[in-house]
Amino acid sequence: MLAVLATLVATGECASAESLAEARKLYETGDYAACQDAAAKGVESNRWFEEWWLLKIRTELTTGKYADALKTFEAAHQIHTFSLPLKWIGVEVLRRSGRADEATGLLQSIRELAEAAPRRLEEVSSRVAAGRAMLATGADARVVLETYYDRAKKDDPTSAEPYFASGELSLAKFDYALAAEAFAGALKRAPDSPDAHLGLALAYQESDAERATAALTKSLELNPRHIDSLLFQADNLIDREGYQAAEDILAKVLEINPRHSRAWAYRAVLAHLAGDTTKEQTSRAEALSTWIANPEVDHLIGLKLSQKYRFAEGAAYQRRALEVAQNYQPANVQLCQDLLRLGKDEEGWKRAAAALEADPYNVVAYNLVSLNDVLSKYRILENAHFRLRMDGREADLYGDRALRLLTRARERLTKRYGVEIAGPVSVEVFPKQSDFAIRTFGLPGGSGFLGVCFGPVITINSPASRMARPANWEAVLWHEFCHSVTLGKTKNKMPRWLSEGISVYEERRENAAWGQSMTPEYRELILAGGATPVSQLSGAFLKPPSPMHLQFAYYESSMVVQYIADRFGENTIGKVLADLGDNVRINDALAKRTVPIDQLDANFDAWLKEQASKLGKPGTDWKRPEVALDAGSAEMAAWNKEHPNSFYGLLGEGRALLAEEKFAAAKTPLSKAIELYPTSGQAGGPYLLMAAVHRALKEPADERRMLEKHVALDADGIEPRLRLAELAEAAGDWPAVRVAAEQIIAINPLIPAPYRLLAKSANSIGDRRLAMESHRALLMLDPLGKAEHHYQLAKLLVEEKQLPAARNQIIRALEEAPRFREGHRLLLEIAAGMDREGAAPNTRPVPAQGATQPARSQ
């Protein structure tokens, strides 16, 4: 009889397992109603089979039937009293039923059971549930990972569950690489799980937009009603300002679960962005209606507002989250970042340290605390309006220059846009790109960013981080401070495209070589219909198909600003900014100040295509030659005979003739290339090639003219400016030498060449202050020439009648070169001068140890 009974039980469990798999398939594909019916029947037919209870509760939670989930849990708990997976899902049920205190007690009971009776962890699901409960009650994350999740993977290598748990833990700690590895492991074991594909999308969202999009698409393909995937989709739409589309997605989620807290939190975000305070409050209340102390709601609202640069509002929401759950680390870490972006450093850094102490495995907190140690060694330069923090050596080299530039930008831009900036703007300059990324984003990455502005705080990469690919740091600083102005004008309520567009536009206004201009690549993209409509421009900055498309988004945005200023008046942009500050949405503000948005889209598109068609001389052929890149001049000439107005063909022929040292012949195609496209300032362009021709033919005046045309279009070229300075020096044109040197310092102030040029120019025109600044810079950058620079400084100080300071400099010169005869002569002159001025005997200079005595140096 026992054998028969065992057979019947086994047969029943086998049948239940088969139907359970079918029911789970219904859940995974989004047929929640059918799944719930199947689970109810399963429970009725076999109350001792725990998996049916778990599936029924899970489906009821997913569809927002929290009262039903509570009844199911209570019935199941009477039968499966010691089930850890049931207790774990029961925590969520109790929270959603307004019984958060009981949920806390249940969490503690899971931990106590796991610790008191390890045999209960033999099942993988029990071990994973215990690990999750341990984390929720403050256990060490590494211990949980190793003792619970990794052990579960070994116990059952076919189970995806511990991989899901590991991935969730990694995401919570901002360890995206480890999360991707974990979800990939889950996917191998559960290839049709939408949760696994969504996990990969979340893991790749910061590093690989293409893979993240593909993973999200697959998740929704498997289950079009997968709530977490739909919410991630809505999140992305909010980022790209697709607010109506996001609302449509949230409506789908609320059809499935009308009480979903995160969906209502996103609705609160949308209401806030629309300036609808009442709807924001009611949406937040709905989000908290089932669990009033749920910290995720306020954290999520605040996070999205901070991502929209509304850091003050975001910080306020994080504080709300922490009022109900003071140890909720996501809110702690986000509040820390918000405070640092608001310039509230003291509280921000304290919170970072506290967050790391509470969670030693949080990557963002660890990065910030480590960075604070680095920043503590930086130097601070200040004036009434700016607080500039940078590496000490760099501060000596160009800190004052940066402050002068920022002051000039403030005078011009605040007046132009009618803005008063309260308090000093903090500017932080990072010689290491990784430090910049951590200060800016909390994590390494962001290699495409030169600078970022949060309003009262600006972070930029210093030239030291871009030695291989220098960029004009003065243009970057001007661009970022312009953001401070426009963000201040709008109270941080502006779309990214407009903010970037104004900054690029103002770069061009300040310096024709700054900013961006039309290129053949942009021309082709525009004429092919690749420009983004004005009404959708913010989306162009998110997940662009290539780096060129991202750069084009900046350019196109600046052209929208230029179009509006030219067509509707310069003050129109300021009026739009004021409207945004009053909670008017961007498309409504544009329609109010210009024309209806559909008409603006069409009119701008036509205007931009007209600008593109004007690039170069009419009739210019932009087709690239169908010949090898290293083709000789004869082959290029043959191609050009069939395409006489081909800019790239003529450029190629000129380049080939230059390589073949047929310099005079190269003038013809290059002259025509310049005629066809006179605004080409790109590296390898016709002006640089023609300058090389003139140099080879020893025609310095013409070479200089070509180089001047090129640098007027290129803000980042160092070599052309060095050559210009050399030509100007040969011609005795010292003001031109100084201009070239100053322009090089604006690109890279960390190389000695421009300071040598400045020193020569300053000496020639009698500018002692500039000469002294230049030699002091060279003392830091030119270690082999220290004796000469100390000597030159001593001479200049003598002229300034600063004899003690001059004596110190000449002694330092002699320390570097003890047999420096001119140095000894100068030292004698200084000593005699000090005697004439009645210097005390003990102030006479003492030669450096090992130096030749002055009296014997003759």
TrEMBL record:
TM annotation in the entry: none
Chain segments carrying region Disordered: 837-858
Gene3D superfamilies: Tetratricopeptide repeat domain (1.25.40.10)
InterPro entries linked: TPR-like_helical_dom_sf, TPR_rpt
Name of the protein in its database record: Tetratricopeptide repeat protein
